[in-house]
Amino acid sequence: MPVVSLTKVATSPSAATAAGNFTIRVPCFYGKRLVSNRVSFGNLRRRSCISHCVRSELQSSRVLGSVIDSSLDNSVENGHLPKGDSWAVHKFGGTCVGNSERIKDVADVVVKDDSERKLVVVSAMAKVTDMMYDLIHRAQSRDDSYLSALEAVLEKHRATALDLLDGDELASFLARLHDDINNLKAMLRAIYIAGHATESFSDFVVGHGELWSAQMLAAVVRKRGLDCTWMDARDVLVVSPTSSNQVDPDFVESEKRLEKWFTQNSSKIIIATGFIASTPQNIPTTLKRDGSDFSAAIMGALFRSHQLTIWTDVDGVYSADPRKVSEAVILQTLSYQEAWEMSYFGANVLHPRTIIPVMKYDIPIVIRNIFNLSAPGTMICRQSEDEDGYKLDAPVKGFATIDNLALVNVEGTGMAGVPGTASAIFSAVKEVGANVIMISQASSEHSVCFAVPEKEVKAVSEALNSRFREALAGGRLSQIEIIPNCSILAAVGQKMASTPGVSATFFNALAKANINIRAIAQGCSEFNITVVIKREDCIRALRAVHSRFYLSRTMLAVGIIGPGLIGGTLLDQIRDQAAVLKEEFKIDLRVIGITGSSKMLMSESGIDLSRWRELMKEEGEPANMEKFTQYVKGNHFIPNSVMVDCTADADIASCYYNWLLRGIHVVTPNKKANSGPLDQYLKIRDLQRKSYAHYFYEATVGAGLPIISTLRGLLETGDKILRIEGIFSGTLSYLFNNFVGTRSFSEVVAEAKQAGFTEPDPRDDLSGTDVARKVTILARESGLKLDLDGLPVQNLVPKPLQACASAEEFMEKLPQFDEELSKQRQEAEAAGEVLRYVGVVDALGKKGTVELKRYKKDHPFAQLSGADNIIAFTTTRYYEQPLIVRGPGAGAQVTAGGIFSDILRLAFYLGAPS
Ligand code: ADP
Ligand code: ASP
Ligand code: MG
Questions:
Q1: Is 286 touching ligand 2 by the criterion CB < 6 Å?
Q2: What's the whole-model pTM score?
Q3: Among 110, 246, 272, 765, whose Cα sits 20 to 30 Å from the Cα of 311?
Q4: How far apart are the C-alpha atoms of 60 and 654, rounded to whole Å?
């Protein structure tokens, strides 16, 4: 046991708060100044932890000449510690020992493990380490609330102990706890006075959480009648600090100390503190945040245990952080390298340094859930493709992200071919102690870029600017650019090395989610591909790549504009089909916004489509298109967003360009954009080709009939369009299909209006504008640069009635003009023909028309019934016999169906399985 003689350094006893306290002068850093402070300490125990700390301060300032370190002598008796398979090492994280009930559960697990010997590493109770760091923070900010915060720490442990223990065990724990708290009070008082805590003071303070949890757990196991000792890992684990603010274990020294410790505590169940250790000079230190996993791995290696089980609050290692990707799946096995890469890149289920110590002895790590004992967990062990019986399942095992990074880009033509530039850059970075997380250098050597934690980037930038002042002034370096607010996304998998196309799929998924990549790195081992992206894109990116590789669900955030007849029918169709899409097609459509012209409704988790009408009325807020767009796009969780414009509004159509520019996909039956001003249409199409944003508008012509897609298919496969001719208006189709026998035209119009087949004012149909828009759309789709204005349209509304004030007046006067059309019909009939109102795209003549034409009675257009549309494509391939598409081309159900199938087409483009 280390014993510290303080006689020569301690000054006279002070007027300290508690009897037996004393005061010494210890040197502390105050800002950058070394000052001397009076520090009061409570009663030193037989083996006081403070002794480590005091000694640290004194030794480091070279004022101590008389501290006697008797902790280590060379008389270690070897051979007492039985190493090897008889040992099982378990580690329980903070949540596992979060309260008294959980500590009992942990004790159950320990007791039930039938290994011959057990070493259990335990973290502090959940949140306690944060509370301890907070104490230091308060004290050094000279905020005396550290006292009440310390009281809370005491109370938490006192209450837990009261729940768990009784008799002597309780009394001795509480005595120790109160003692520790008193010592901490003195220590924090010193920090408060100095306004500063040295690293060893901090490490000493924060490690108490583990001291208490380990003692309580050991006592609970003893209560079950088993022989169990607790271990203060500072007596055993020796680690040396490194320049990169980490610590390296000294295995040789730790092994010696362990042997010695074991000779005095040879128990078959040992509960050891995680997180804390000593320096070679016996100064208390820690393995840094989340370091208990690392402690356990070192213990596993020291004991050569047969397994290391890390107990936590999730079922194992997931393919992505389950808090960010709800579809993440548990990985049954991981190789050591894969686990290391996952943890290095931010999967905090495992501390990255856990792997190396156990890997050396081939000790498997199993990650298990204390709250779900039936889950087998994830096994991390040695794996290779060649090993018999082992099959590496997926090329990409998992994804992880690191936030709060900045990218540093050092650029300049003077770097090419100049040896030592990279080393100069990174030595400047090292001098400020920054941690470089990834590096990427263009092969032209014109730029080196690397990612560092955001909080370190200022120092890095200053160091580089100072190191390269001359090169910058001389123009050899053009800039040292800092790009803040970045995140890293890494794909990890051992099999990536031997599987072509993994990066292509990875980048493709990112491109489809419209995520810009700022830097890329892929190591030679190819165990990971790393990209740097904007922080705000991080979760979307993670979900996009995850769903691509795991074929979980293609998620699409949907914003519906115009919940009228068509929009409303669409919402109902989505409601009815959502479950099937999710289960069978792996498509997760989430309508996260609905906006009408006056009200809008939004919900990030998806609007309840069984009640959207009521919700809209009850919870709708005033409509605001900018806010709506921001909402649909601004959600950071669903990788892709689509706006579905179900209006006939030109203003809404004018938003498409900006939506596409922002990476929002657009689906619409609204004809206004594609038949509107030519320059705007061309701008949209140009953007569409250049970007990964999709624009689908099948329902603009023929509702749900496959007209645009048929035309596209013909063009894309190299066919040449000669002519498109068709009956594009359901209303006009109905009117002329029924304008037979002795019936007058006005009579048929009145009947159609009555049946709801016309617009409220039938002149909107009869004017031919709607057909003209469709012809314009098809003409443009075929490559003609036509404008609606230049298209000759035969208006069926008699001239004198075009100015009628109301639909009623129009209907009333229409019979007066029946004669003209009756005459035309009779003439046609006499020639064995019928009248049909058609739109024509004449691709050869580069023109379009909308007119009333006559067709032979055996022509397909003459055979039509009801309100069907019919479209004939005459092409070089379909020359003798045109390709005909026929069917109902109007009505809410079929139009909504057409829009819906565009939304699904989009999902397939985005990676849903077909
Ligand atoms: P403990 O206190 O037990 O050490 P941690 O909080 O350090 O627990 O680690 C467990 C947490 O890690 C989980 O609750 C989970 O939210 C998070 N996590 C992040 N990435 C992953 C991943 N890929 N697989 C599993 N858990 C992950
Ligand atoms: N208790 C320490 C921390 O919270 C170590 C650990 O739990 O791994 O950082
Ligand atoms: Mg942890």
A1: no
A2: 0.64
A3: 246
A4: 70
